[in-house]
Amino acid sequence: MPRVLRVLPPTPVGRVALGAVLVLLVVALLPVDAVTNDLANRLAPPSPAHPLGTDHLGRDLLARIAAGTRLSVGFTLLAVTVCALVGTIAGMLAGYLGGPGATLLLRIVDVLVAVPAVILGLVLAAVLQPGLRTLLLAVVVTGWTPFARLAYQLTLREAGSGHVESAIALGAGPGRVVFGHILRAVVRPLLAHGCLRFANTLLAIAGLSFLGLGAQPPTPEWGAMLAEGRQYLFSAPGLVLAPAVAVLAVALLVTLLGRALERRWTG
């Protein structure tokens, strides 16, 4: 079987999820006007010109959902990537080197796991200005810990394998062993875990943005759009339903993709 096909999800559901994720990436790149106000058409119902209607400022709701894909999905991908890099490096080094450093890392992980990202975001917002940098900091500080714990466990398992012991016997240093041998064995489980963590991170970012700690108006972001539309819940429910469905649909799709990859790579 070609190498490209071997990395595809093995189930039809997984492949559908992968296709839908690729479509989302294309949608995120579409050039749309999501910020121009048209007060004459505010809160307009769905029509051929505006398939999902317009918001309280007359902006096309479908265009704002599409533009929000770029920020919500792209920013979540950035946050998960940073969390994965920090957690993987810390967990692998602790798992391979051991000693007091590994014990300290595990204690830090235990403490941070108990701190919700929302609480940390509120604290950071009181110290810093609300915005994407504050949001990223709040998510990363709490989000790297699952990757660190998984990388630590995988490294402990791989450290006693034959190919690692052979590399050490041939004189390979810790850096080469960790990043040249162990990393190749643990990268797939970590990638699958990253897909599973994507949904949690997306929901956390949407929740923090809903509280006003993330993107600021008029930037289209799904959590911020939920906050803007809640006062029109009964007069124009689409302002809440559209971004809510977008968040839940993307979280579900990426989770299904992660489950499929996990079964293929770790099952």
Describe the fold and architecture:
With 267 residues, the protein is mainly alpha-helical. Helices cover 72% and strands 0% of the residues. It has helices at 3-6, 12-28, 61-97, 99-113, 117-127, 132-143, 145-159, 162-169, 174-210, 222-229, 238-266. The longest helix has 37 residues, at 61-97. The chain starts with a helix and ends with a helix. The relative contact order is 0.15. The model is unreliable at 1-5 (pLDDT under 50).
Strand-helix topology:
Elements: H1 3-6, H2 12-28, H3 61-97, H4 99-113, H5 117-127, H6 132-143, H7 145-159, H8 162-169, H9 174-210, H10 222-229, H11 238-266
Helix pairs in contact: 2-3, 2-11, 3-4, 3-6, 3-7, 3-9, 3-11, 4-7, 5-6, 6-9, 7-9, 8-9, 9-10, 9-11, 10-11
